[in-house]
């Protein structure tokens, strides 16, 4: 799945399949300007920053069990969001400090370091990398991903895929080759 935020005409947090199909709104009320998003892949939670409402909130992948983690003026200066173990990590754009927020009570907020001009943050750790199983976009014997001549996108499951073409090409009637 692909998760993303939008704060155009109607602010929301959405998800869809990797090929863009099955687009679903998971948060579409009491949300104004969601600017950062982080996923808890183990427990299947979506966290986001709303800089207009000055809040950090969370829902499950279906948009249920919504909770506010923390609220306050300091939120409007945050950018980027990552989750690891018991904490959320973000950047304070006023002073470029890396902040750590307890994701269960939101009260334990600590500045950890200062990184000049930082705008985004990511946590890379072996435990956050899910095991990859065989999937529909693996290269075929001719080296073509999922048998697609240009681009292979996972669809509704790891067993399904959709072929797409680069700009200037159209998908052939076989659903795999680009012309």
TrEMBL record:
<dbReference type="GO" id="GO:0060070">
    <property type="term" value="P:canonical Wnt signaling pathway"/>
</dbReference>
<dbReference type="Pfam" id="PF14670">
    <property type="entry name" value="FXa_inhibition"/>
</dbReference>
<dbReference type="GO" id="GO:0017147">
    <property type="term" value="F:Wnt-protein binding"/>
</dbReference>
<dbReference type="GO" id="GO:0005886">
    <property type="term" value="C:plasma membrane"/>
</dbReference>
<dbReference type="InterPro" id="IPR050778">
    <property type="entry name" value="Cueball_EGF_LRP_Nidogen"/>
</dbReference>
<dbReference type="InterPro" id="IPR000033">
    <property type="entry name" value="LDLR_classB_rpt"/>
</dbReference>
<dbReference type="GO" id="GO:0042813">
    <property type="term" value="F:Wnt receptor activity"/>
</dbReference>
<feature type="repeat" description="LDL-receptor class B">
    <location>
        <begin position="44"/>
        <end position="87"/>
    </location>
</feature>
<dbReference type="Pfam" id="PF00058">
    <property type="entry name" value="Ldl_recept_b"/>
</dbReference>
<protein>
    <submittedName>
        <fullName>LRP1B protein</fullName>
    </submittedName>
</protein>
<feature type="repeat" description="LDL-receptor class B">
    <location>
        <begin position="1"/>
        <end position="43"/>
    </location>
</feature>
<dbReference type="InterPro" id="IPR011042">
    <property type="entry name" value="6-blade_b-propeller_TolB-like"/>
</dbReference>
